[in-house]
Amino acid sequence: MIQINTGDSRPIYEKVKDSLRQLIISGALGADSKLPSVRELAVSLTINPNTIQRAYRELEQEGYIVSVPGKGSFVSRDRSALEARKVKLTEQLLALAAEFDELGVTREELAAIIKEERDT
Amino acid sequence: MIQINTGDSRPIYEKVKDSLRQLIISGALGADSKLPSVRELAVSLTINPNTIQRAYRELEQEGYIVSVPGKGSFVSRDRSALEARKVKLTEQLLALAAEFDELGVTREELAAIIKEERDT
DNA sequence: TAACTGTATTAATTCGGTTAGTACAGTTAA
DNA sequence: TTAACTGTACTAACCGAATTAATACAGTTA
Q1: pTM for the full model?
Q2: Which of A29, A53, B59, B90 could form a disulfide with A33 if both were Cys (CB 3.0 to 4.6 A apart)?
Q3: Which stretches within A3-116 are classed as H helix?
Q4: pLDDT of B3
Q5: Is pLDDT of A5 > 80?
Q6: Closest in A90, A96, A111 to B115, CB measured
């Protein structure tokens, strides 16, 4: 369900968050889908349950999932988190664009890159 | 010359690297410009010389600067590092675009954002 | 009742980042 | 030549975040 072996050295709980967020945004995990239990996922990834719990807790704070003691964790029904994600990604995009500016890459060139490299 | 107080919690040496890289790319520090000495910059930023040395060493590995024992560190004359930077930023850009895709933001919309938000 | 959920808490550990101190060799100007 | 700079190297210590480990408790479900 999730792969954590990305070479980067970021914290494990961040990788778990990113993987789950991606699954939710892409629709692979639809609204109300039941996530694996904290202990279950911990075993399958061979990491500590506390680490999974941290990922779940933060994903809940961000609005992607809802956790219910005794029942489990589920993909949130409301999509407000997706809007927040858009805002965040847009900030990153503009920061990137500013860096390209200083490298002498025009906005037109950037736009071209985005439109052309559609199949990656 | 450099500010390190950006709220993020990234390593100090990374912030120093980013600051200097930005100054070099923007042209604020032209080719052959002399950088502050390791000890000098360490004092002015109130951090350990070892931390500065690490930033300088990595900037040299990336091709932005050249360090000469006894003389100092200088902005590199050849611009190959800038091309490498472009490649790296382009990778980041395409990764971002892929995320926008899944959020339902079209490439045309992305291009529009890039062109419109010119003054940020 | 038994087996599952999420949650909370505390302690120990691991590891990268950072500091501290010292040392050495090359450069430069008085 | 000497003094004061440079970059560089090395070791030891420290700090804090990430992670593991071990329990414990309360709600849910079959």
Answers
A1: 0.90
A2: A29
A3: 12-26, 38-45, 49-61, 80-102, 107-116
A4: 81
A5: no
A6: A111
